[in-house]
């Protein structure tokens, strides 16, 4: 076989391998959608973040009995991650609720994950530890801070007078 013909066959095989290498990861990336809900355990009335990857579409929808329907938007330029947020109904029952992600509209690929609604779940905002503020503890804390500042100034003034 002439060298020129071998070169053409090798070039053709290399081109075919390049096409397959470029197409297969893109196809596999969209083959299996994966959804997530964060946080996974919430109290009624809390906000949850929703995201789905591997859809292969620029649109998706998340739905659950805990919060209804939410349209998800692309989280990056390639639309490999679609995201959004929802507020869990204040009347949501405690327990597990399915969250179904549907890629690309009706009839698209679906994936379901679980969201747990609990009464004592962590609350968002201000570190999740502030429920309400009463004036008693605030007044006591302010008095302690003022006392510490006063004592510090008294010690500094007394030290300066003893060195003079």
Could you characterize the architecture of this molecule?
With 164 residues, the protein is an alpha+beta fold. The protein is 34% helix and 30% strand. It is built from two helices and eight strands. It has an eight-stranded mixed beta sheet with strand order 1-3-6-5-4-7-8-2, with no helix packed on it. It is elongated, with a radius of gyration of 30 Å. It starts with a helix and ends with a helix.
The H-and-E topology, N to C, reads as: HEEEEEEEEH
- Mean pLDDT, nearest integer? 75
* Proportion in helices: 25-40%
* Largest β sheet strand count, sense and barrel closure: 8 strands, mixed
Termini separation comes to: 106 Å
Instruction: Determine Rg (CA atoms, Å).
Output: 30 Å
Biggest sheet strand order reads: 1-3-6-5-4-7-8-2
Work out the number of β strands: 8
Beta-strand percentage range: 25-35%
**Shape summary:** elongated
Residue runs with pLDDT of under 50 for 5 or more positions: 10-30, 126-131
The chain-level structural class is: alpha+beta
* Total DSSP helices: 2
Would you kindly provide a brief summary of this structure?
With 164 residues, this protein is α+β, with helices and mostly antiparallel strands.
